[in-house]
Design brief:
globular; mainly beta; about 55% strand; 12 strands
């Protein structure tokens, strides 16, 4: 009987040890004189670094590979999604009280859409970007009515 209990405990420990929590992904942002640096961590270990020029957002330095996933951006109250080393998917920024402030949708480091929000959660502006660089922006009042539309053509 004791052998069966010990065997059962060992099997349970093996099962529990194979189940792991999701990886903790963190991106630290440093603002430098002429660039912005992102350092990427997976479970507390530095795995990658990139430096972007402030003008043009071109990558100046890239070290290591950015693991796919959703990163919490320390200090900026942001969540950013990476896939294949590029911004892909939602990118969200929050106010100090935790409410959503901005929401971007990205594809291969390029913006697809952008929404900003009033503190009450209503949409303040919505922009849809096209591949050619053109966009349409709608600005709303607190009641959800469109007050202005901006368009940029190529």
């Amino acid at each position: 009987m004791i052998n069966k209990i010990c065997s059962l405990i060992i099997v349970l420990l093996l099962i529990v040890s194979t189940v792991s929590a999701a990886d903790e992904l963190l991106r630290k942002t440093n603002w430098l004189a002429t660039s912005q640096e992102h350092i990427f961590y997976k479970n507390g270990v530095k795995v990658s670094r990139e430096e972007l020029a402030l003008t043009g957002r071109n990558v100046i330095i890239s070290e290591g590979q950015i693991p796919d996933g959703v990163y919490r951006d320390e200090g900026e109250r942001k969540e950013v999604s990476y896939q294949n080393g590029k911004l892909n998917g939602p990118m969200k920024q929050y106010l100090e009280d935790g409410k959503l402030s901005y929401e971007h949708e990205m594809k291969d480091d390029k913006p697809i859409s952008l929404k900003s929000y009033f503190p009450d959660g209503n949409v303040k502006s919505q922009t849809v970007f096209n591949d050619d660089g053109s966009y349409i922006e709608k600005i709303f009042d607190e009641n959800g009515q469109i007050v202005k539309t901006n368009k940029k053509s190529k």
